[in-house]
Structure to design on (450 residues):
């Protein structure tokens, strides 16, 4: 078989790079399972024939479309992390005599195997958990409790086509990148992001103006119509502002720290601050996306909980429970989806930065810094970077409360105390989850930095 050598090499590469591939495989399979379950409930007959089931099904169909958009975007984004970690390896193939077409074949077979594994595991998990998830939906929506869960073939076809298309496009992109680049360029691309950021002040100013405008729109929302009309423009402004602030604003703050000679030239601050200044361009996009995903989790969970519990006094009809239960159900799944993406981005970011910092910390050891001091330096650098998105996400969520209250008012919800209680409770739980993720992924950074 002509492709057998490339297939064997692809298998060997994936096993050797399992520290990157296993987390990616788990996270992608979770996303596939979530989409398959929601697609089955939206396309199947499990709830469509029930009283008020059409209301819940409409909610599920809308949520599925939004889920497809977010899943596609973040699968592409996560793929960029993964291929960057492999760029040096692909470049080495070229140096050792592999042609670009041969390396592209290896990349192709890796993509095929990943696609088969993710879709297979995702459908399996979706099938195993589908019944339990169906019971949860029935409980939340007060639909017929004795209903039977059935699997719709159309939902399986939808999931296979969707994730097959995502992996096909990702594989084509990876093959094109290998084909286009020269071996030496690939070997150097892993560190290509380490350039000093430009236009720091304008970026910071633009970010502050956009963020200030978005916060003003939210806090000044006087009625539901105004809030519903300007919600998505405000969301877009926050996303753009977050990206600009994490690049321009963070570098500006670090620059001010550097100007304070007493602070900067302290041996405890010199290495972590100096390293962050020149790596912030590389870090900014990842940090901004972590912040945005964190905000999505906080807003989604807070809003759906407030809508469900705060709205229980607004009605008790079947349509009411079908609608509000369906919203809570989709909020639960979106929270899992966002958390999965956030955790995977954080993991790859930790591994990426640990690998990039390995030579720097080896140099510090050679010039006399003991292991205890090196670990303190690593810890301070990681903490500064890691908790910035959490702080900003909490600020975004609190600022969104004005607009969220008005939107919830459009759903017969009018008691603001429910929203603040839900925001506070969600923020507390999320902060704990975020710290757990930090603990789990920081080990990957230390391992890579050794």
């Amino acid at each position: 078989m002509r492709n057998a050598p490339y297939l064997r090499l692809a298998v060997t590469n994936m096993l050797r790079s399992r520290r990157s591939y296993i987390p990616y495989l788990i996270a992608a399979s979770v996303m596939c399972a979530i989409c398959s379950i929601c697609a089955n409930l939206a396309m199947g007959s499990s709830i469509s024939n029930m009283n008020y089931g059409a209301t819940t099904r409409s909610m599920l169909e809308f949520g599925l479309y939004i889920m497809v958009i977010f899943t596609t975007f973040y699968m592409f984004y996560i793929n960029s992390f993964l291929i960057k970690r492999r760029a040096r390896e692909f470049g080495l193939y070229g140096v050792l005599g592999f042609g670009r077409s041969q390396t592209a074949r290896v990349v192709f077979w890796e993509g095929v195997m990943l696609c088969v594994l993710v879709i297979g595991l995702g459908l399996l998990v979706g099938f195993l958990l589908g019944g339990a998830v169906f019971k949860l939906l029935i409980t939340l929506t007060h639909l017929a409790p004795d209903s039977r869960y059935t699997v719709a073939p159309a939902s399986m076809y939808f999931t296979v086509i969707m994730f097959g298309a995502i992996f096909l496009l990702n594989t084509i992109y990876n093959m094109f990148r290998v084909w286009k680049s020269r071996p030496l360029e690939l070997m150097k691309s892993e560190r290509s992001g380490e350039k000093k950021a430009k236009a720091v002040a304008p970026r910071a100013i633009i970010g502050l103006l956009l963020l200030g405008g978005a916060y003003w729109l939210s806090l000044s929302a006087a009625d539901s119509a105004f809030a519903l009309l300007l919600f998505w423009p405000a969301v877009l402004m926050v996303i753009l502002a977050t990206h600009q602030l994490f690049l321009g604003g963070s570098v500006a703050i670090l620059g001010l720290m550097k100007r304070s000679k007493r602070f900067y030239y302290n041996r405890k601050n010199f290495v972590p601050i100096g390293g962050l200044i020149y790596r912030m361009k590389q870090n900014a996009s990842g940090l901004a996306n972590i912040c945005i995903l964190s905000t999505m989790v906080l807003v989604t969970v807070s809003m759906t909980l407030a809508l469900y519990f705060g709205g229980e006094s607004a009605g008790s009809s079947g349509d009411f429970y079908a609608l509000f239960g369906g919203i809570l159900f989709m909020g639960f799944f979106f929270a899992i989806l966002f958390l999965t993406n956030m955790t995977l981005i954080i993991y790859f970011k930790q591994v990426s930065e640990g690998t990039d910092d390995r030579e720097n910390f080896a140099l510090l050891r050679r010039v006399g810094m003991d292991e205890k001091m090196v670990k303190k330096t690593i810890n301070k650098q990681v903490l500064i970077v890691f908790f910035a998105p959490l702080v900003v996400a909490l600020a975004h969520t609190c600022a969104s409360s004005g607009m969220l209250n008005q939107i919830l008012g459009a759903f017969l919800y009018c008691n603001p105390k429910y929203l603040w209680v839900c925001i506070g409770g969600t923020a507390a739980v999320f902060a704990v989850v975020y710290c757990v993720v930090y603990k789990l992924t920081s080990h990957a950074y230390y391992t890579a930095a050794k």
Observations:
- The CA atoms of residues 49 and 163 lie 29 Å apart.
